[in-house]
Amino acid sequence: MRGAVSAAAEIDGFGTDVDPTLAWCVAVGEWAPPVGEGRTTELWELLASTAAVDVAAARILEPHLDALTILAQAERSELRSPHDTWGVFAAESPDHRLRAEQSRTGWRLRGTKPWCSLASHLSRALVTATLDDGRRRLFAVDLRADGVRPHAGPWAARGLAQVVSAPVDFDDAPGEPVGEAGWYLERPGFAWGGMSVAACWWGAATRIAQRLLAPAQSANADQLSLVHLGKVDTALWSARAVLAEAADLVDDGRSRRVGERAVSERLRAVVADAATLTLAEAAAALGPGPLTRDEQFARNSADLHLYLQQHHGLRDVARIGREAARQGAAW
């Protein structure tokens, strides 16, 4: 694993040039361990280590590996081809609706799917669509097939600028069912993907936190530089402990007894808070210099800031509180 991440750092345009980064992701997908089969810690270390090199690269890698895990869970790995690049498009929007209908020639998708990251670069995707009865079902789709049209935008993001997340239009496009209706949301491990994203957040935050070491180690270090580093160190240490425990819970099956969604949302809240604090403390400690003169630091900071928007803040925390109240808490 360390060799693969070290080699990635030598790839010209790693994280910024999408196609060579995707080629690396395909190679990693051949050996990366899946979540929930005894090696979850190794997978999350891989994702965190990738994010510590380049946040966007981890953002590209995580959904590819997630799709491979989903296909294996559904026992549909035969849908994989050696050079395929995968995404998972499961976001919903009141402004866009994707419907699936069965015809004599198979399933057909019609409508628009929002927030489809890298659709113009990927070859395949797992896409959720709504059936006539209102249930959602997962389909494997060839993104280069007739009837599939990725939008180029709108995408004005400064963070993750190369990871364009825009709508895709489906006009009578063929889709191959993966699992039964409702399976994608109800399957054991639905929450695992969200925890893998949190591992990326944590790895990205550790890279930013590295910049706090030099001021604190300086012979002229003042108390404030030590406070900034101490706050970040405590937060990241705590988040790492939560990631380690969650990986054990997932691998030995205890997460199902605790409630996988509860485990995932607690984990994501802890890591998101730690990463947000890291960004804030780095800005306070270092000032505008690195954000204006260090291209890699500025890009990683902007990338992480946008990536963290996948956590829904107080809405997610409210769900944690609701579940804690229902269970009488489980501390």
UniProtKB/TrEMBL annotation:
It comes from the Bacteria. One of its GO terms (molecular function) is oxidoreductase activity, acting on the CH-CH group of donors. Transmembrane segments: none annotated. Signal peptide: none annotated. This is Acyl-CoA dehydrogenase. It comes from Microbacterium schleiferi.
